Prior knowledge:
Oligomer: homodimer
Largest sheet of chain A: 5 strands, mixed
Strand content of chain A: 15-25%
Structural class of chain A: alpha/beta
Shape of chain A: globular
Radius of gyration of chain A: 20 Å
CATH topology of the largest domain in chain A: Trna Endonuclease, Chain: A, domain 1
Number of domains of chain A: 3
Number of strands of chain A: 7
CATH architecture of the largest domain in chain A: 3-Layer(aba) Sandwich
Number of helices of chain A: 13
Amino acid sequence: MPVRIKKYSGEFEEFSEEKLECSLVRAGAQEGDAKAIVQKVARRISEGMETRVIYRMAMRELRRASFAAAARYDLKFGLMRLGPAGYAFEKYVAHVLKHHGYEVKLNQVIRGRCVEHEVDVAASKGDERILVECKHHEKPWVQCRIQTVLYVKARLDDLSQVFTKAMLVTNTKFSQQAIEYGSCAGVDLLGWRYPDQGSLEWLIDTKKLWPVSILTMADPRIIGLCIEAGLLLLRDVQALSVEELRVRLHLSRQKALRMKREVEEILGGEAS
Amino acid sequence: MPVRIKKYSGEFEEFSEEKLECSLVRAGAQEGDAKAIVQKVARRISEGMETRVIYRMAMRELRRASFAAAARYDLKFGLMRLGPAGYAFEKYVAHVLKHHGYEVKLNQVIRGRCVEHEVDVAASKGDERILVECKHHEKPWVQCRIQTVLYVKARLDDLSQVFTKAMLVTNTKFSQQAIEYGSCAGVDLLGWRYPDQGSLEWLIDTKKLWPVSILTMADPRIIGLCIEAGLLLLRDVQALSVEELRVRLHLSRQKALRMKREVEEILGGEAS
């Protein structure tokens, strides 16, 4: 008998064991572990249960099986914790694009035909000069709406002498109308699970560009310190010694050690 | 010795007796009354006092002198109370435009080049077909920003086969950048004290199109009932008998009577 669960958007859908297993495997859980977790979780799911609750159960089980996989499974929430100011998300997106071969410049003020614009990220690759607008949401169910895509398009039009195209990056999903307009008006959209090929989490996962905000030891204060110090990626933390970490982040030796260990646990054992 | 007061925006400015007097007279206070109120209020102003506090003191005094003038002085807050859904503000703006000779249609869904758009108000006058976007703010210090003007411009572009121009209406102020972009990109802006000639409150005051939300007896529930019943203007209420009011708004006879009296007190004695 199929059970319906409640998504973040408020809509209902049938609970799918396959879908849950797939997301666990994608996060790096062994197939056997993933199957066992799904079995455990499935037994406790009831009609109308919220995705959030199911996610938390799976997360708890996954953490027991693989700490590293659990951290990566938490990417969606890690990206949310980059808020609230939003500036950290812009910086993070710039890092991700840089690791994918773009040249990036942050927070440029550029004169357009009508007015000056504050451009989150100016990226270039080959002949393309790309106006990148970042839209950070703190709630998973908040979609990036058409209004934002429209406004990026008008900004591109005003800056058409400087940029050849525009890209809108968000940590959540796009509304159907936003997608429709974006592809018609020539604004590239990059978000959670969008587009099918080369979504934001794909860009992150394939190059292990996970943000420090997925660390379980990173509370808002520590995330803030990392952002200030320009340490947005686990990779950046990995490159530093415990002593350097301690000094750059003003952490106790114990906390620096814990951070370093957690980062190694997630990144360490894998070929990069 | 000049005293500095704190504006809604958080900025400071020198308190001006003339400015306060001017706003009271504009609301309909007799010149003598206005002067007397300013004297009373000025004595109690201290360095750094907030505009909001001064406004409340003036309002209290004005109410004693002229109930009708006090209600109109409250227009800015009356417009804010049309929220929070924003839909009431769209309806209200449509009414104001209609009384100024526009033909208006509310909440049209219109197919553009790329996507369908929900258009708040489609207005026309002569050869002009105007896409009207309404932006309601519940806090007086929230400005209408350039992002909104950009997005209206892109919407107009997508709907350029249907509309000849765009207008953005807000109940607060526009940022300097929004004004700069709007006038360059051809989006008409209409807001609080903007433009100098023909601002939103000018359109309202000159034709006595005050909203029901300026009534002191109108709590959020009553405002909601009025909106549902399509009674957005005091003029609409004036046109009904106490009995009609009672039935249309599901009010007690006593409340209907009180509403009717208050409306008469504001509109009644004046030539329209």
